[in-house]
């Protein structure tokens, strides 16, 4: 690849950030901490899915590496063992799917508890926007701390 290993290093960093965000979402789905980091990880994963799908379900960094590699040379686009780089999608897709299902379950469970709170009013009323992952990131004037 042109520019030495800079492209490989960049692709590896992107991979590590994206895979870490998927693992973090899985952790949040299993243990229930919905934090601003959960929303950030969900946003990063969503952006990656949109970019990946928009590129015909091919990693755009792989396409970039193929375009920069001279014909006849092996394409080395990421610092991962070949057996792992060939299975990244097969590993990360089910993990992301399970993480999203777990988070959805957590949010629905939270909604049920909020509904019970509404039926037995507490001093603070809960708005429907409390169910959003972005509730924890964006400031809301009605939020009491």
Strand content: under 5%
Straight-line N-to-C gap:
52 Å
Give the total of beta strands. 0
In round numbers, the mean pLDDT is 75
Radius of gyration (CA) equals 20 Å
- Report the helical percentage: 55-70%
Query: How many helices?
Result: 5
Order of helices and strands: HHHHH
Largest sheet: none
Which structural traits does this protein have?
single chain; 145 residues; mainly alpha; elongated
Outline of the structure:
By secondary structure, the chain is an all-alpha fold. The protein has helices at residues 6-31, 36-54, 60-68, 82-85, 88-119.
Q: Would you spell out the secondary-structure blueprint of this structure?
A:
Elements lengths: L5 H26 L4 H19 L5 H9 L13 H4 L2 H32 L26
Helix pairs in contact: 1-2, 1-5
Describe this structure in words.
The protein is an all-alpha fold. 62% of the residues lie in helices and 0% in strands. The protein has helices spanning 6-31, 36-54, 60-68, 82-85, 88-119. Helix 1 packs across helix 2 (36-54).
